[in-house]
Specification:
Elements (H helix, E strand, L loop, with lengths): L7 H18 L3 H6 L6 E4 L7 E4 L1 H15 E14 L2 E12 L5 E13 L2 E9 L1 H7 L1
Parallel strand pairs: 1-6
Antiparallel strand pairs: 1-2, 3-4, 4-5, 5-6
């Protein structure tokens, strides 16, 4: 279930982010990347072996999305709540998957912070329990 405020500005920010999650759910990483600013700044916490700050669509593809298919089976990003906060969109939800190397399942909560400029995401940061993910590896 998605929560939205009802003013026009909020709905458009939420709609942009919802479309990105929808592309990801359909396995269309190309569409997701195309929806980002070409100089997107993407932040993954340092508790993960691929943690870091990546700049640009190519770095995000190479260092984040390409790793999901080599390390996880059925990696799912399931936002439960999406809300606007100024020029930011916040999503709360869960990651889930099974690690390909160990066969161990993983499910952990996340908070995603998106910053948009002119309706296009220019910054993304994920906050999650990295221990839960690492324990499945």
């Amino acid at each position: 279930m998605t929560t939205r405020q009802h003013d026009e500005h909020t709905a458009s920010g939420c709609a942009v982010v919802e479309a990105l999650y929808s592309s990801l759910a359909q396995g269309d990483v190309t569409a997701l990347l195309a929806g980002l600013d070409e100089r997107i700044e993407w932040v993954v916490p340092p508790g993960l072996h691929y943690g870091g700050t990546y700049r640009g669509r190519e770095e995000v593809l190479e260092n984040v999305f390409s790793r999901f298919v080599t390390e996880w089976q059925d990696f799912t990003v399931a936002p439960a709540e999406i809300m606007e906060a100024g020029d930011r969109v916040i999503a709360l939800g869960h990651y889930s998957a099974t690690n390909l190397a160990t066969g161990k399942p993983m499910r952990t909560r996340f908070a995603h912070m998106w910053r948009l400029r002119d309706g296009v995401p220019v910054h993304f940061e994920t906050v999650l329990d990295t221990h839960t993910m690492v324990a499945a590896m």
